[in-house]
Fold:
Amino acid sequence: MIEVYNTGAGACSLSSSPGVDLGDGAARDRSKNIRPVLASGTARFTVPAGQKAYAVIDLDPSGATTGTAQGVNEINVLVDQDGTNMPLANIHNFPLPGGVRVLAPRMGLYRAGVAEAAASAATAGK
Structure:
């Protein structure tokens, strides 16, 4: 789950989902990083001042134990993926725990609640 908190005094507008890719944190070439399939929707998402937005990513929706991507140990997140309000320099890198399986990941759109974000993720790729 990705959680974004608006600490500003006014509402902010985000792209419909964060920019996310998964890969090897030590790799020099990130061109082979895996991008999740997104739920459909392009409307920007407004986050009121002092509120949170959530996006849910399922790293292995099939539950596979074999055939998963090797060497994936990091998730890279850009909160506003279209770059209008946020330069690429604002990408945040988070380590993934050892043993995480990644195969055909899916991600939902920003929503105001976790349950709604999870429901959005369940529609990705469908």
The first strand starts at residue 2 and ends at 5. Strands lie at 2-5, 12-14, 19-23, 37-38, 45-47, 52-55, 57-58, 74-78, 92-95, 106-107. The domain at 2-122 is CATH 2.60.40 (Immunoglobulin-like).
